[in-house]
Amino acid sequence: MPPRAPSPRATPTSPLAASTRGEGWGEGQPQTPVQASAPHPSPLPTEEWGEGRRRRGFERTRVWIFDLDNTLYPADCNLFAQVDQRMGEFIARYLGVPFAYARHLQKTYYRQFGTTLSGLMQVHGLEPKSFLDYVHDIDLSPVREHPELAAAIERLPGRKLIFTNGSRAHAERVAGKLGVLGCFEGIFDIYDADYVPKPSASCYDHFCRVHGVEAGMSAMFEDMPHNLEAPHALGMTTVLVHSATTYDHPVQQKIRAWHELPEHVHHMTDDLAGFLQGVGPVAIPAETNAHPLSKGV
User: Fold this and answer.
1) Quick check: 166 and 133 in contact, CB under 8 A?
2) What is the three-state SS of the chain?
3) Which of 11-20, 95-104, 177-186 is predicted least confidently?
4) Which fold has domain 19-27+79-135?
5) What are the Cα distances from residue 175, in Å, to 141, 170, 179, 180, 280?
6) For residue 126, how many C-alpha atoms fall within 13 Å in the half-sphere facing its CB?
7) What is the dihedral of CA 214, 279, 178, 211, to 10 degrees?
8) Spatial separation of the C-alpha atoms in residues 195 and 125, rounded to whole Å
């Protein structure tokens, strides 16, 4: 008999968590592309964003930490649409419930537990490897090799690490397809985190301990703003990587409505390779960065 499927009540833990993709896959709604040229609500000129507030720069950065999905590769690859579908399929088969109810559980567990996987483990005693293997068995043809990104990462001074809520195998496949896998000394995945995902502060603390990372000499690159709150609190420089082709997604809508960067987001770019080319190999003092939202520092 398959495990019985309860009807849990969602209790979102943060205003953003309820609707985000969440790098641990499960998480959010399928994305519908929207043209990047769509009018920005109450737009501000780029140079006015964050004016008057000193933002951390990269003069001391010697550890460069990158989220994987929708960060190292652009969000318009839309790999999550495949993962999202496969999560629903897995839950339906595992619990023996209709697909529509499986989708309900998928989203509810994401809101209540931070990731769908965490909910399945805590409520149903799921062994996580089978879930991760199934949902990451996707077509990577939308991801193209990016030699400019590889060169920019290689030129950064110091260590480079991937920090993902997904699996190591998925990270290796995607980074290998991009042509950047050889740039990184290590990968910290959801298994290494003992299945406690970002944005939990304890997850970042554990990452720093495992890899001997000094936060004040580190920079974190992420596509989800709430995943930068803990790195900011630890003393890291934070960079939000958003898509030039935005999506009709609640978090992306919030970003498009910003009039200035929140305190925990120090820089923002829609061109990771271009941004990194402006940083390395010589670190740039914070006070010379007058345009934290521009492509480059």
Assistant:
1) no
2) CCCCCCCCCCCCCCCCHHHCCCCCCCCCCCCCECCCCCCCCCCCCHHHCCCCCCCCCCCCCCEEEECCCCCCCCHHHCHHHHHHHHHHHHHHHHHCCCHHHHHHHHHHHHHHHCCHHHHHHHHHCCCHHHHHHHHCCCCCCCCCCCHHHHHHHHHCCCEEEEECCCCHHHHHHHHHHHCCHHHCCEEECCCCCCCCCCCCHHHHHHHHHHHCCCHHHEEEEECCHHHHHHHHHHCCEEEEECCCCCECCHHHHHHHHCCCCCCCCCEEECCHHHHHHCCCCCCCCHHHCCCCCCCCC
3) 11-20
4) DNA polymerase; domain 1 (1.10.150)
5) 13, 8, 6, 5, 20
6) 23
7) -10
8) 13
Higher confidence at residue 259 or residue 7?
259
Contact assessment for residue 162 and residue 68, using Cβ atoms and an 8 Å cutoff: yes
Domain with CATH 1.10.150 in the chain: 19-27+79-135
Phi/psi for 66 (5° steps) reads -125, 125
Instruction: Give CA–CA dist 231/277, Å, rounded.
Output: 22
Q: Are 265 and 237 in contact (CB under 8 A)?
A: no
pLDDT tens-place string over residues 204-213: 999 999 999 9
Closest CA to 166 of 19, 18, 22, 31: 22
Q: Which CATH class is domain 46-77+144-288?
A: alpha beta
**C-alpha triplet 111, 219, 217: angle, nearest 5°:** 130
Measured CA to CA, the distance from residue 186 to residue 72 in angstroms comes to 15
Buried b (16+ CB within 10 A) or exposed e, 85-95: ebbbebbbebb
Which residues of the chain form CATH 3.40.50.1000? 46-77+144-288
Q: What's the predicted TM-score (pTM) here?
A: 0.78
Residue 189 tokens, joined: 């995945």
